[in-house]
Amino acid sequence: MKYLFSIVLAGFLLVSFAEPAAAKKFGGGGFGKTFKTSPFQKQSPASPNKAAPNGDKSKAARPGMGGLMGGLLAGGIFAYLLGSGAFEGLQMMDILLFALIGFVLFKLFARPKHAPQMAGMQRTGFEAPEAANTGFNYQSNSESQSIPLTFPEGFDVKGFEKGALEHFTLVHKAWDQGELATIAEYVHPDLLAQLTHERGQYAAQLDNQIIDLNAQIVRAEPIPNGHRLSILFRGLMKDMQKNEEHGVFDVWHLEKHASDAWLIVGIEAE
Question: Do 219 and 85 share a domain, yes or no?
């Protein structure tokens, strides 16, 4: 009976802690620079720019529970083993079970974080509708003192957000097909090196379909000889290969210098 329990438990652990589908999408897990953004960004905006859905909508699973559930489950497992006298006369199956538990805990608490600092940018790529202007006259559009939201004079916020939806879709399609040359047009070279390494860990062809998506600028500020902004993408995607849906809550940090195009210098993804 004890061996049957061990086999069932091992199978449950393997299924419960499999790599989430969200990790395979572009920027999954986060890369590059990070910046503080609006503390209210998880609230639905009054009228966000939204992409046309191409499938049925459904509620995405709530993220962030893997570590908590993993700790509780591991604690329960050890409590069971101690209480049942499983440490008396260890068998091969017991050793394998402990090894599996150790592997799961390692995966839970030792996942790498990607947050290197970026250098100056030279490439071009990310473009979106922006009104012409003859100079920068920065005026704050936010009452917040900690989160800047300042734009160049004449900047087309709604047009930029709408264009960002198209770029999000294009970049994810290129990611699924392994077209790193296309992605190189959108990201800083240092970030591209990390993404290239990450993409090499997955199958040659992925199939993540965007079901629902909207975009909102949550930070904007001037920088020397340019501008920086952060745009939040919220929605729902589906891994067609696994038939699994997962929520989208990604922030792209973009920078623009002089007449260059916008480039992605950081990605935060839940």
Answer: no
